[in-house]
Amino acid sequence: MSWMRARMIIFVAMLPMGLSGCLSGNSSNSHEPALSEQAAGVLMIGFRGQTLAEADVILEDIEQRRIAGVILFDRDVELGTTRNIENQQQLTELVGGLQQASGNRLLVAIDQEGGAVNRLKTTYGFPETHRARHFGELDDLDATRAEADQTANLLKELGINVNFAPVVDLDIDPDSPAIGRWGRSYSADPDIVVDHAHEVIAAHHAQGVANAIKHFPGHGSAGDDSHEGFTDVTHTWQEQELEPYRQLLRMTPSPAMVMTAHIFHETLDPAHPATLSRNVIHGMLRDELGFDGLIVSDDMQMGAITDHYGLEEALERSLNAGVDLLIFANNLAYQPDIAQEAQAIIVRLVQQGRVPATRLREAWQRVCDLKTELHLAC
Q: Is 130 noted as a catalytic residue in this protein?
């Protein structure tokens, strides 16, 4: 379908969605997708445009490459302008049009934590939200659930089926530039974090919106911001930062996804940050904590990755580490052909034996399993 034809799409209301439970590792998918389709099917891409007419690049990625999903932003960091969000009607039409163009198989994601990390702002006509620290200090689970219900209902109305929230980093350093400074953590107490995060997960689960808890194995003690560059937590990270994951991954409902952090810890991995580390992703999250669901990267265009790794090495290492879904937010730096380039690299990595075909198939299958849970096609 061309973008000119896509402009004529009339939004059709999304079918009701609901999550039946945590991922089982099985899927009703019965065909073996081509290597190129598997490669694109583990990519989530950010894009510019508030209408289908403005979104011709991402429409090509959706229709021809069959990328796994898109991520929405209100602001374009590079341009300093608005990006995908103007008001509720516009956003509903945009999301609906993209979903219809995909054949109802698109993961549509947003970072809607509340407070500072809040893409659906009051300036666009959306309800007010509060930062996690507000709820942790209040420590009233009913209040946390009420706002989480409001957010989950809104996302469902908009057709957004993935929320990269809640943050389960511990507030170890209140001045941490990526977490504490913005009040994104509920508390330094793991039990408070778990209690409030679980309310958020349960509210979203009830509306058929998948959550990703973040940022594994813990970003709350970091003295630097991984958006901007190398972030070493070797001397600040604490074992208790794993506790929210230990508890939440055993609870019902459990989060559908875990998002990685780009933090470096020389004891956990002497060479690579967490997102690129098999020791951290496979060893700790898979083996030690027993998580068998979908692992999603933080933005692969953050400075902590791009300042030290080329795209090919970053893709090779992250996939081999165990990451299943790779985010290119395309916002810190805009690369309109990033999906095409990443897809081609992943195909080449598999053909050369640098990423096992079974590893890519496993990643693609986990993405497909999540789509099945959300009543989407693969």
A: no
Instruction: Tell which residue, 206, 189, 199, has the closest CA to residue 140.
Output: 199
Does residue 17 lie within any of the structural domains?
no
Any domain includes 23: no
* Predicted confidence (pLDDT) per residue in 317-350, tens digit: 999 999 999 999 999 999 999 999 999 999 999 9
Nearest-10 Cα torsion for 224, 227, 229, 235: 30
Q: What is the pLDDT of residue 17?
A: 37
Decide if 227 is catalytic: yes
Summarize pLDDT for 137-183 with one digit per residue, the tens. Answer: 999 999 999 999 999 999 999 999 999 999 999 999 999 999 999 99
CATH code for position 37: 3.20.20.300
Are the beta carbons of 170 and 117 closer than 8 angstroms?
no
- Annotated catalytic residue within 298, 299, 324, 369: 298
Task: Give domain status of residue 21, yes or no.
Answer: no
In a domain, 8, yes or no: no
Q: What pLDDT does 150 receive? A: 98
- Residue (of 71, 80, 82) closest to 46 by Cα position: 71
In the block, residue with structure tokens 């991984």: 226
Longest dimension (CA), the chain: 56
Q: What is the pLDDT of residue 231?
A: 79
In what side-by-side order are the strands of the sheet with 43-46? 294-296, 257-260, 210-216, 162-163, 107-110, 69-72, 43-46, 326-328
Please give the residue range of the domain that contains residue 122: 33-373
**What global pTM score does this model have?**
0.90
Q: Is 236:222 a contact under the CB 8 Å cutoff? A: yes
**Is the alpha carbon torsion for 11, 16, 18, 23 positive or negative?**
negative
Task: Name every residue whose Cβ is closer than 8 Å to that of residue 66 and which is 6 or more positions away in sequence.
Answer: 37, 40, 41, 102, 105
For residue 138, the SS3 value is helix
Query: What pLDDT, on a 0 to 100 scale, did the predictor assign at position 376?
Result: 98
Mean predicted lDDT score pLDDT of the chain: 91
CA–CA dist 353, 56 (Å, integer): 34
Number of domains the chain contains? 1
Which listed residue (130, 227, 282, 375) is catalytic?
227
The strand pairing partners of 213, in sequence order, are 258
